[in-house]
Amino acid sequence: MKAGTYLCGAMLVLGLTAHVAAGELRNPDGFNTPQDHVIKRSQVEDFAQVGPNATFVCTSTSKSCTEKDGPFDKNGQLKAEGKVESVAYGRADSKDVSGLQLQRTYERVIKQMGGRLVAVMLGQSEKTGQMRQVHLIERKDQKKWVFVDTRSQYTLLNLSVITETALPDILTAGEFKSQLETQGYVALNVNFDTNKSVVLDSDKPTLDQVVSLLALSPDLRLSVDGHTDNEGNAAANKQLSQQRAEAIVAYLVNAGVAKDRLVAKGFGSETPVADNRTEEGRAKNRRVELVKPKPSVHSASDKPTDSVLLSLLAR
Predict the structure, then answer these.
(1) Burial level of 235, CB count in 10 A (0-12/13-18/19+)?
(2) From edge to edge, which strands make up the β-sheet containing 287-291?
(3) In three state form, how does the secondary structure of 23-41 look?
(4) Cα(315)–Cα(40) distance, rounded to whole angstroms?
(5) Cβ-contact 21, 238 below 8 angstroms
(6) What are the DSSP E strand ranges found in the chain?
């Protein structure tokens, strides 16, 4: 499986990275596991596109969806982009899922959440339960598109919640330097596949700016600090954060940065910057930071006196 690309049933999800702690299976924020079902797999992408191979009909017009109706292309295919939380459910007794019953349940639940049914798959069958439906939940300035898929596999329900977000900006070497000088650290906008510590191609432009920063500041030394949220095993998370920090250091060294200018540190979940009880908080806690070491401070009493220096010279 390529980095940032995975399949959920027959639904293709393309994204930058996955963020799920070791052995962790969880629901999208605000949703619960359906009754008599269990989570088979789950994944979170900071930025991705959900694009099932299907044409959708908008409920408001009974016609094929277009760009004017939301995140659809001219052919009526869904192209929702943003933060993607995907999960696959199966029945606890391993029987086939009831597609129609599940779709109706999500229609009711999402309506209670203030959402609405926006589009249904062209040719979907309520009789067989092979259905794909798109819902929209709008709150203040935030839009969440909810894709419910009971068509791909009779034994699974695939749910994706896409929260619209902007593409992350890549900081320049100058911006890195400015933040380091003003606050002593800067967060790297880099990501990793689930339980992996391999630097992704999508993050290399960001790391190349760090290389430029260090070239422009030959006396600068940095600590590369890895952090996680508190989901999963604490020891495993700390080890993984260390491995990821080391992977970034290795990339920078391979790009020509002297090894003695860098140190890798993994802190796991020990130093959160946000509330781990919410998905938003956990996302902020999963981070890699460049930290500028604080200069050593010596008091006047630490400085050798003239008499001491003379005594040393006389030996």
Answers:
(1) exposed
(2) 185-188, 287-291, 222-227, 262-266
(3) CCCCCCCCCCCCCCEEEEE
(4) 75
(5) no
(6) 5-8, 11-15, 37-50, 56-58, 80-91, 116-121, 132-139, 142-149, 157-163, 185-188, 222-227, 262-266, 287-291
- In this structure, are 140 and 21 located in the same domain? yes
Same domain, 233 and 85: no
For 12-70, how does the pLDDT look when each residue is reduced to its tens digit (9 = 90+)?
444 444 454 445 788 998 999 999 999 999 998 877 899 899 999 999 999 999 999 99
**Angle, in degrees to the nearest 10, between helices 234-254 and 204-216:** 60
Cα separation, 195 vs 233, whole angstroms = 12
pLDDT confidence band for 298 (50 / 70 / 90): low
90 and 35 part of one domain: yes
173-183 helix and 204-216 helix, angle to the nearest 10 degrees? 70
**Radius of gyration over every alpha carbon of the chain, rounded to an integer in angstroms:** 25
CA distances from 216 to 80, 111, 210, 298 (A): 40, 55, 10, 28
Alpha helices in the chain (DSSP H): 99-112, 173-183, 204-216, 234-254, 279-285, 306-314
**Per-residue burial over 260-294, b = 16 or more CB atoms within 10 Å of its CB, e = otherwise:** ebbbbbbbbbeebeeeeeebeebbbbbbbbbebee
Q: Does some domain include residue 310?
A: no
